[in-house]
Amino acid sequence: MAAGRGPELAPELEALVREHPLRERLLGQLMVALYRAGRHGDALGALQAARHRLAAELGLEPGLQLRELERLILRHDPELEPVKRRPLPTRRLRRRGALAAAAAIVIGGVGAGAILAFGSSTRSRPLDVGSSRLAAIEIRSGDVTSTTALPRTPGALTSGMGSLWVADASGDTVSRIDPHGGSVIDRIHVAGEPGSIVAGGRAIWVASTVGGTISRIDPGTDTVTQTVRLGGAGAAAVAFGGGRLWVADPTDQRLIEVEPQTGSIRRTLTLDLRPTTLAFGDGVIWVGDYTANLVAQIAANSGETLSTTHVGNGPAALALGAASVWVANALDGTVSRIQPETAAVVATIPIGSGPSSLVATGRSVWAANQYSGTVAQINPQRNRVAVTLHVGGTPASLTADGRHVWVAGGPGPGRHRGGTLRLVATQTFDTIDPAFQLTQTLVFTRPAYDTLVTFEQAPGPAGLRLVPDLAIAIPSPTRAGTTYAFRLRRGIRYSDGRRLKAQDFRRAIERLFRVHSPGTTYYTGIAGAAACVRRPRTCDLSRGIETDDMAGTVVFHLRAPDPDFLFKLTVIGFSVPVPGGTPDHALRSTPLPGTGPYAIVRASERHLRFARNRFFREWSHAAQPDGNPDAIEWHVVSSLDEAVDSVERGGADWMLGLIPPARLHRLQLSRPAQLHTNPSFIVEFAPLNAHRPPFDDVRVRRALNYAIDRAKIVRMYGGPAVATPLCQPLPPAFPGYRRYCPYTAHPGAGGAWTAPSLAAARRLVADSGTSGARIDVWGTTDSIGVPRALPAYFAGVLRSLGYRARLHLVPFPTLSAFREQVQLSVDGDWAPDYPAPSAYLPGFFSCHGGYSNGYVCDSTLDDEMRRATALQERDPRRAAVVWSRIDHEIADGAYWVPTVSLRSPEIVSKRVRNYQYSPLWGFIASQVWLR
Q: What does the angle CA 369 – CA 43 – CA 391 come to, to the nearest 5 degrees?
């Protein structure tokens, strides 16, 4: 290593580090070898993995020399590069001094058996990491002076009006805490997954992750006194400054200015980035974009963008202090320091694993490192960490009140491992193959399988972030947007012990075509896929997916730019790699090896068991955290009522499916602590076959939309707490969503549905001349998401309009077999695969959509959807405008009868703790801990 060699030693060093994971010298040598091999991300990743392991097992941080080496790698210091193979004079080695000690890992400086230890600037004061806590750190001494237990894992945190305020995304509450005694004064219900919180204007402002609302809490009454609706906007973050409330809207790439006295939207500023975090100071709003790794400086008065700065990977938090802007880079484990006058990054400071929050206090800056269980105090004069305080658990949010820094965090990793998590469903497991999973979706596939990229497994706004999984980093497309090049993480094995190879990803996509998986629709844009559609059995994508096992690279070549391609790689389990020898048919009871923390060890149509994958190691807590339960079991029961009974009496811990409304009302009264009502993007609808009479006449389709009583349907789903009337296909808070309802008795400027209009419906039926026509209404006997009474209700409405309606109820697979011949089916239940209209509308409303069943074909609509999809990459704001127009055109064409948008009520058993719900993918089963 001292002679400048190293790349050829990387495989041997990787094996040695796995065998001796706590030896500082070996780990440092591995980092240098990986760096010299061009694997810079792997080099940093090795240290990140060690940080997390040491925090969980020993409560330690890496030593000073390794942290210095990390700094050199981040700077791409030329002294780390390989040199010619010649003996280096002793004199030169001495002259390099401290640099050689870091780069060559001080050969002989630290004993070979030394473990990664604290430097002189590290203090340890572990909290009770077995539960969620709020802790006070005295700024002068750095001592933890008090702790307060929290009922659930906390999210955002702020101080104001003499109190501390903690948002709980999974519990839909904000807790008010007395900073002097540490007691919880009150808990205030805030709907929509409260994800960001700030104090200002004599109020507390809370942004909901899903639903596009801001709630104003009056500290005098501890009640929500106003709800500010943002239309179709999202609300990723809020900040207060200049007498205004500022809202980050990543959905439409806007910054929204709210007048706090009235709650009215004063103006909106369009941005050239997706704002995900905010900070305000000196008349300037600083805006971070987590995905693009950018920070922009916006003048509050003019709205002008003054500068844009590239920072580290995943800027998750901003803070202003010491005449600088500080940026927490969650994926790098660093903090960037920006000089406002020049908008230049003047320092990059390694601080820990997963920095998620920052706060500036006078002469120092504090950062919470979520995955290493530490809070770091940065000295701005020296641009380095002065003190690392080990507090344990998963510190996630910080605030300050003058004397103290307050840190809120959840339970520590590994402290609640054990037990068997029991899940129940009403549909049998006809296949356990991830290439065919639709019903159980991510609750089923995610614990056992991984993809190249994924969405972060977290509640709140973090759950909408795209993060690298089996890939080291998220690549930017090249060659005019048609090429995506991934480099794989090293050393990952399947649950059967085989090594993950690059070729396994091409094999997986080819296999989708060979086995006629529904997932093929996501990958027809790959070069060579057209031939696979025509001749599935001989599918060969070697032209479209280049793989190199030695280099660990997977390169996708597309026929045309696809701004959704990275999103498509996250969908369910369609792109999970498959090892050699995997058969080209659906696997019914033979498990497919996976890379996740669990593996299927037993399977039948009515029972599944997942056990720990002994080859799993946590490479990214954000993408695939290690699981808490020792095992996860699925059981099939005969009905949703039986599923609820099983959870209520403790025979199961969670159920998949809609809680029957009558049971839901009782649970709201009798078991509120076990009930979680989560925001979601779920849309309910009845699709109409526009090519079969009488629905080939737009007047008939519109008549049914007018006649349906959406308030009655809301009650069928469980009431206003669960369902909201909907007249359009896009769900609230989606890009392009603008509330619109042409089918209501009393139309208003706000676009809300108010009541059905049978008079308007009957006029349209009379004009169409179709009264008396026969209509077959189809529903399913085994739906887990649609009320049993809904198909019969639709049939009754059609009869009231003068049609001869007949109701048919059959199992879901039976209906699927001939769905293209159906006039009307009442089983539409859909949650988009990823947060973009292109994930959703083309599939149902294009001529060749994978979910349209041939019901709709309008070439003009197809052209518009292609244009909107193409715009998403180069001009997202214009794309949102086009999608909004398309959404309204689809509503005007009445190709569906949209009924309601849903929240997702879930019941868990009394022994479930650390319940978490992703706004995109739902219940996060692997993170539950069992009492």
A: 20
pLDDT tens for each residue of 424-438: 999 888 889 999 875
**614 vs 235, residue with greater confidence:** 614
Mark residue 4 as left, alpha or beta (left: phi above 0; alpha: psi -120 to 50; beta: remaining).
left
Residue written as token pair 């019914």: 588
C-beta of residue 376 within 8 angstroms of C-beta of residue 366 = yes
Q: Which residue in 41, 39, 28 sits closest to 1, CA to CA?
A: 28
122: β partners: 388
Q: Which long-range contacts (CB under 8 A, 24 or more apart) does 153-156 make?
A: 153/394, 153/396, 153/410, 153/411, 153/459, 153/914, 153/916, 154/396, 154/397, 154/408, 154/409, 154/410, 155/194, 155/195, 155/396, 155/397, 155/459, 155/460, 156/194, 156/195, 156/196, 156/197, 156/397, 156/460
Q: How far is CA 369 from CA 42, 62, 169, 352, 480, in A?
A: 20, 14, 19, 6, 38
Segment 224-259, tens digit of pLDDT = 999 888 876 678 899 999 999 999 988 778 899 999
Contact (CB, 8 A) for 373 and 55: yes
Beta strands in 169-274 (DSSP E): 173-177, 184-189, 194-200, 203-208, 213-218, 223-229, 237-241, 244-249, 254-259, 264-270
Cβ neighbourhood burial of 1 (10 Å; 0-12, 13-18, 19+): middle
55, 393 in Cβ contact below 8 A? no
Predicted pLDDT at 93: 33
Residue 508: predicted pLDDT:
97
Please check the confidence at residue 382 and state whether its pLDDT lies above 50: yes
The pLDDT tens digits for 313-329 are 889 999 999 999 999 99
Tokens 């805030």 locate to 190
Token couple for 517: 């998986």
List the one residue out of 194, 173, 416 whose CA is nearest residue 928. Answer: 416
